[in-house]
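step=encode ok
step=design start
structure_in=
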């Protein structure tokens, strides 16, 4: 059941990245990331601090890739993946579900470590059996998504990301969201609500 919950949560986090405030009463601006059906909201200020790209890191557990990150006054969301061998997949999944959720990234803004708020994963590799190990060998990719609590306006051009035994700085650029009441904002909102499934957040 826990694995099914984590699958459902990660689907919503990776498609919408909007679990922090997806209603008009709390949100004044909306942003489309031009990466498929990926949207985010903010309130008070239109600024989004965004990373769109592909940072690759080599961990002893496998290859780590960071593909999308943003923050605003509703918090942070980061999407990343870990490609690991099937010999380690059992261990990786246990870390995702342990008491401390130790698989998920540590994010630091300046000297402040941000508290994790939501997290989830799914196993992307085609044909990967469950449970492990895979008798045919090969690798398994865990797609992960985490959100972090931070509700102040911050001007920063990077955040520090630590994942298992690797770390890096993630550069951020500033883009402005569309007002929800604008024509473009309403168009994004309609696209979003016609796409998403309803689920509940899995919070610590």
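sequence_out=
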């Amino acid at each position: 059941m826990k694995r099914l919950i984590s699958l459902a949560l990660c689907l919503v986090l990776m498609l919408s990245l909007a679990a922090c405030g997806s209603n008009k009463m709390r949100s004044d601006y909306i942003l489309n990331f031009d990466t498929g059906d990926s949207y985010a909201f903010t309130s008070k200020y239109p600024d989004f601090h965004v990373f769109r790209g592909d940072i690759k890191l080599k961990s002893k557990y496998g290859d780590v890739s960071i593909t999308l990150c943003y923050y605003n006054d509703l918090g942070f969301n980061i999407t990343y993946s870990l490609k690991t061998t099937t010999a380690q997949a059992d261990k990786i999944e246990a870390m995702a579900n342990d008491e401390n959720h130790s698989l998920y990234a540590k994010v630091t803004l300046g000297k402040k470590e941000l508290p994790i708020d939501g997290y989830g994963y799914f196993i992307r590799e085609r044909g990967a059996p469950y449970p492990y190990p895979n008798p045919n060998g090969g690798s398994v990719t865990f797609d992960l998504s985490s959100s972090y609590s931070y509700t102040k306006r911050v001007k920063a051009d990077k955040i520090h990301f630590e994942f298992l035994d690797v770390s890096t700085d993630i550069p951020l650029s500033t883009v402005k969201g569309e007002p929800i009441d604008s024509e473009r904002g309403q168009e994004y909102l309609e696209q979003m609500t016609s796409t998403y499934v309803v689920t509940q957040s899995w919070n610590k």
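step=design ok
step=annotate ok -> The two ends are 17 Å apart (CA to CA).
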